Amino acid sequence: MLACGPPPSRSRCNFYSGPWGLELVERTDTTAYLRASGPEHHVLELHASAQNGLHHLGFAAATPQEVDDCAAWVRAEGAQVVEDPRRGDRPGGGYAFRFLDFENRVIEVSAEVFAVPERERSNPVPRKVAHCVLNTVDIDTAVASYTRLLGLRVSDWSEHKMVFLRSNADHHVIAFNQHDWAGPNHVAYEVSSLDAFMRSMGRLKVSGHETSWGPGRHGPGDNAFAYYIDPAGLVPEVTAEVMQIDEETWMPRVWRRTPELSDLFRTAGPPTPRMRKHMGGVADPGWAAVDRAEPRDAGPLLIPMPDVTY
Ligand SMILES: [Fe+2]
User: Which residue in 206, 208, 164, 172 sits closest to 190, CA to CA?
Assistant: First the structure.
């Protein structure tokens, strides 16, 4: 679902398929597909590129009919559909369409993606992507657009700076952060328990990867967090115990942006300037706006199969 990455692509793929705990399932000269432990064919795509950015963000629909209905809806609402619903030939298969959001992000809605058996559960590896946080120049338009086009619901606000949106019982699957430019902020990968969270941190630590922020527990979403910086400079997060929402009773709240509410554990302290810099990233014009399919200097992804065992 997420793409990205200038060189060193090889070290980047090794990071995610090694200590991060994902598993390489397919690859081409320029793209690597990595799965978590859950039933999804892949949760992360790494595309060779001269600049960090979001390739596309994928949402699951229940049936091809829902994909068709969603495509008709977003087109009627004025969004630009860049790929009509079709059964494509991409790894993972499925029936999908793609459209551009108000900041030129490519959004995919898919159904009937290939199933894969769940991985053995003894290792504390990510089971899914929990959420993606995006920087935006217009947080109000982000809320209006994503609630209208995709039916997401607002779970909470962090003052008027961040907004958390859900599509199911998870407190948020996507959040927007008001910023000076659009681009990816971070991607969170969920492990199954607080024990798995700590052991994931331990695996990363002995592999030479220290947290850049965390461990801690956020107020909004109540999730445990530990943020890292990947070899290309993007920010992945390990998370656990994400708050589950009761649709019948939930009322969105506004959180003050104080240290004690940003981290209920009080172990993390505020994010460092380096952390903020990487979460801010660089201005992303959107994958469809730039021909990054064959970057000049990124070179092919030369990806060895993972050789890390736990
Ligand atoms: Fe997060």
Answer: 172
Residues of the chain with pLDDT under 70: 1-9, 120-122, 290-310
The answer to whether 68 touches 50, Cβ cutoff 8 Å, is: no
For ligand 1, the distance from its centroid to the CA atom of residue 86, given in whole angstroms, is: 32
**pLDDT tens digits, one per residue of 23-80:** 999 988 888 999 999 999 999 999 888 788 899 999 999 999 999 999 999 999 999 9
Residue type for 293, please? A
Mean pLDDT of the chain, nearest integer: 89
Q: Please tell me the distance between residue 144's alpha carbon and the centre of ligand 1 in angstroms.
A: 21
Q: Give me the domains of the chain, ranges plus CATH numbers.
A: 2-117+285-304 (3.10.180.10), 128-280 (3.10.180.10)
Distance CA 182, CA 103 (A): 7
Please enumerate in sequence order all residues whose Cβ is within 8 A of that of 208, keeping only pairs 6 or more positions apart, or say none: none
**How many whole angstroms from 131 Cα to the centroid of ligand 1?**
7
DSSP state of 235: -
Cα–ligand 1 centroid distance for 71 (angstroms):
29
In three-state secondary structure terms, 173 is coil
Note the pTM of the prediction, 2 decimals: 0.91
